[in-house]
Specification:
The complex is a heterodimer of chains A (466) and B (48).
Chain A lengths: L1 H6 L15 H12 L9 H4 L17 H29 L1 H25 L2 H21 L2 H7 L4 H29 L8 H22 L29 H4 L3 H31 L2 H4 L7 H29 L1 H24 L3 H30 L4 H8 L1 H23 L9 H19 L12 H8 L1
Chain B lengths: L17 H30 L1
Classes of the chains: A mainly alpha (466), B mainly alpha (48).
Amino acid sequence: MATDSFLDRSRTIAGPGYNRWLVPPAALAIHLAIGQAYAFSVFKKPMGALISGNVDKPDALDWTPGQLAVIFSIAIVLLGLSAAVFGKWLERVGPRKAMLASALCFGGGFLIASLGVHLHQIWLVYFGYGFVGGCGLGIGYISPVSTLIKWFPDRPGVATGMAIMGFGGGAMIGSPLAVALMAQFKDMAPMGVAPTFIAMGIIYLVFMMFGVFSIRVPADGWKPAGFVPSTQANALITTANVDADNAIKTPQFWLLWVVLCMNVTAGIGVLESASPLIQESFSDTAMGVGRGVTAAAAAGFVGLLSLFNLLGRFFWSSASDKLGRKPTYMIYFGLGIALYALVPTLAASASLTLFVIVCCVIMSMYGGGFATIPAYLRDMFGTMQVGAIHGRLLTAWSTAGILGPLLVNYLRDSQKAKNLTGAAAYETVFYTMAGILVVGFIANLLVSAVSARYHVQEAAATKVAA
Amino acid sequence: METRTTPNVPVDTAPSSGLQTALAWLYVGVPLLWGVSQTFIKALALFN
């Protein structure tokens, strides 16, 4: 069938004059779209007032914040699960078919969810945005990674940093886009949510098609002009390959799983606490009347953190090409431990500028942790099935995405139950997060070269790659 | 089971043009810059 052949990996092999800088935009077209997931909170208030029509006075029949929080949780769990399950399929069929599947799931998820909103059936929203859309997130997230690494063997950190930076940027596009669309459609349906879901489903589906059509894989044996693989011996950069099934049998895979999980959990600690912490610690009482941080300024602070999360993805991942992956994670964890431990002191001493700077550096390293991990996996396991291995590692993100907020909210609430206020209520959160980073630091320290017994033999590698 | 029968050869014969590359980057760059600028404007509230 013609469609089959268009989607086949063999139809995506680039010719000799192909410019590899066309590949990052294809990857970004996917990541900028699916990154919308991190802006889903923009729908929480409108979706909680579909019956009453008033976000400040929800009806008893309106969906509760707890019910709505489950939507994102399902999506983030499905992200990890689908990336893990479909990773090997992606390596077999190539990036184009995987990107199409991602676009259909992500766009389709919005459409199903719009029906759920229209009928006011929460389970349909769970199924649409959470389950179907979550599969689109997972497949889309890993779909360009191994292709980019193969196109940029000389700077894998730069390449994956660009794509994963797109995921951070996706939230920045998704949030104002949703607000504008809901305002546009507010007279058509309650809070304008259902038509906004339809519009966003179609917009993202079309936008992602650019990636589907333009993605190319390099021909066998292709190398960038003038690229000579380093002959310097580095135990942590392999020239061999490990397949996905064997990779999960290695201690290195699980050490990197802990590394990612700890980095994400700690980052979530800041994200969950940022807005209330800055408002409570730098209130009018602490700073003087009229000089305290307002709710609008706190929202600006969260925006600033998002910018540093985005920039950190590109900066740190690119830097890791020069520094090495293991030393880069040593910085994330080593510097992170010191900075996390410093946050409560800065908050208590009302050093607003220093507090903001420290939180921005922390967020840059949180983003950097996401973006550097594909290149770390490539160094440890080779390029053959790095997409599939990355997919399996993303279960660490799902785990952190669920456990992180639970832990942070529990710690914060338990401190507030002791009548602690302001910075004091967050001390335990940040010291615990620093402790979590110690675990990540140790895990990263233990990473060593993968034993040769897990390596795929040359002939088998060619067969698997084919 | 291996079902692929298409030969493993390139499908693009013409070299990529600079214009093609620039347009591809514009396609993703414009929405990204829009999103970043919106966030930046929001972030300015902190400094006010």
